[in-house]
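User: Hi! I have a protein structure encoded as tokens and I'd like to know what sequence might fold into it. I'm fairly new to this, so please keep things simple.
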């Protein structure tokens, strides 16, 4: 299957965006730029990171306005979830990249007596970053930060479904960098397919599982290494000993931020039957507190990205019981915060990733039921557990597998520079953020340097009779 086939369902959304230079021209420029070694110097990497930080500051208002137009994000949410995170990451990387980039001396075994061993991180070359529409600025620039820090050139393909943000990213990068070092390719199916047919040294993709399979297939043609940041149904376990009031507040915030269009948003809740009604009361209180009596009028509540996703979400709500008022407005791409009571485990809303402001809640009687429910399903990108019992949280972590875990909170693990962010199994492969991003875009080259002042004869034939005994000792 070629890479174009899996993008056919997006044809109706394609945007024909003129580009100043062809993809082939940009790739040739970046190949030449990289081969001349311009990206290897640590000082030049820091200079490019500093330029990126200054550009983000300079374009902050335009970025926020674009996010409002594309997703209905408030200025405050744009700062909190996108712009601020990018600035923090650049500043942290500038502070630590010198340490990360150092050649590291490691111990050498006795059998290599007379040698010294080192590990040298080196850049791959051209990096292709394919970013999604839900956090279109954050998820375009965050991997770029790591790519620059590692000494690579980069090509960003922003999502055509967030056209306003894509245009601002193009403008910001074009005014800040030469195409030889960083370039942005706008467009949709045609441009993405063309990029995937080219030879890159690394591909970084954030998006859905189905397209992720296509990206991986395209990478295989060139034996290109890649990172896939996918998604899945991230579960929440709420135990009877949890602080239910706090759990409801944090879950409501994590779920309904960006109108639920977050790859690590709580996808469904598994809650102890004895505290379910209390949880319902508190989560309704928090929806009211966050967004008022009419969320449609709230400047802090986002919109669904497009008509296709709106209709998909509306279809998921059919024949479901909700404890909250369900209001939809197709013209405004609005769906109110919805909490579903006990949907069937095999219903569509429990089979596919929701990616919207719909939160199914299912009850259990024993914690083992919740764990079994999770483990028989594909591994999620995140798992959240609310309990005050450390033995229970430990058991949940030991018996489940997920990209990341939060205990008594949700979403917040994304904000730590010291934690890797990535999936496992169908939720992705590879990770980034902080040093983990530097590692992702670096090849760690093994180096052995051996003296010529002497030459041990034991490694050369003919071998003495006692050679075998010696080898078993050293």
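Assistant: Happy to help. Inverse folding works backwards from shape to sequence: for each of the 474 positions I chose a residue that suits the local structure. Here it is:
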């Amino acid at each position: 299957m070629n890479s174009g086939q899996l993008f056919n369902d997006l044809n109706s959304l394609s945007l024909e965006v003129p580009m100043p230079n062809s993809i082939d021209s940009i790739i040739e420029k970046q190949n030449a730029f990289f081969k001349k070694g311009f990206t290897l110097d640590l000082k030049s990497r820091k200079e490019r990171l500093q330029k990126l930080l200054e550009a983000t500051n300079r374009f902050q208002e335009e970025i926020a306005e674009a996010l409002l137009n594309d997703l209905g994000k408030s200025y405050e949410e744009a700062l909190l979830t996108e712009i601020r995170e990018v600035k923090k990451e650049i500043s942290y990387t500038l502070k630590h990249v010198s340490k990360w980039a150092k050649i590291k001396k490691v111990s050498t075994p006795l059998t290599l007596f007379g040698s010294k061993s080192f590990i040298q991180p080196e850049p791959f070359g051209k990096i292709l970053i394919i970013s999604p529409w839900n956090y279109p600025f954050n998820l375009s620039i965050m991997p770029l930060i790591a790519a620059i820090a590692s000494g690579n050139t980069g090509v960003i393909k922003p999502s055509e479904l967030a056209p306003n943000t894509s245009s601002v990213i193009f403008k910001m990068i074009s005014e800040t960098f030469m195409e030889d070092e960083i370039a942005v390719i706008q467009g949709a199916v045609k441009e993405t397919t063309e990029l995937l047919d080219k030879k890159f040294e690394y591909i970084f993709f954030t998006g859905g599982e189905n397209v992720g399979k296509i990206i991986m297939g395209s990478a295989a043609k060139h034996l290109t290494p890649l990172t896939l940041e996918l998604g899945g149904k991230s579960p929440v376990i709420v135990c009877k000993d949890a602080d239910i009031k706090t759990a409801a507040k944090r879950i409501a915030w994590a779920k309904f931020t960006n109108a639920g269009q977050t790859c690590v948003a709580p996808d469904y809740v598994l809650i102890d039957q004895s505290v379910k009604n209390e949880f319902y009361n508190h989560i309704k209180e928090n929806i009211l507190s966050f967004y008022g009596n009419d969320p449609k009028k709230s400047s802090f509540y986002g919109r669904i990205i497009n008509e296709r996703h709106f209709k998909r979400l509306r279809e998921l709500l059919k024949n479901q019981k909700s404890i909250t008022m369900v209001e939809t407005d197709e013209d405004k791409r609005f769906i109110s915060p919805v909490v579903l009571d006990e949907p069937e485990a095999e219903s569509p809303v429990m089979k596919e990733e929701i990616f919207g402001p719909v939160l199914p809640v299912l009850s259990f009687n024993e914690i083992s039921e919740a764990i079994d429910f999770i483990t028989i399903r594909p591994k999620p990108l995140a798992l959240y557990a609310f309990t005050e019992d450390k033995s229970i949280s430990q058991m949940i972590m030991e018996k489940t597998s997920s990209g990341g875990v939060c205990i008594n909170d949700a979403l917040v693990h994304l904000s730590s520079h010291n934690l890797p962010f990535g999936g496992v199994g169908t939720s992705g492969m590879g990770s980034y953020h902080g040093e983990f991003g530097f590692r992702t875009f670096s090849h760690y080259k093994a180096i052995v340097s051996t003296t010529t002042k002497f030459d041990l004869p034991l490694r050369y034939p003919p071998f003495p009779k006692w050679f075998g005994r010696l080898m078993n000792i050293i």
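A useful reference point when you look it over: The chain is about 40% helix and 15% strand. Feel free to ask if any position seems puzzling.
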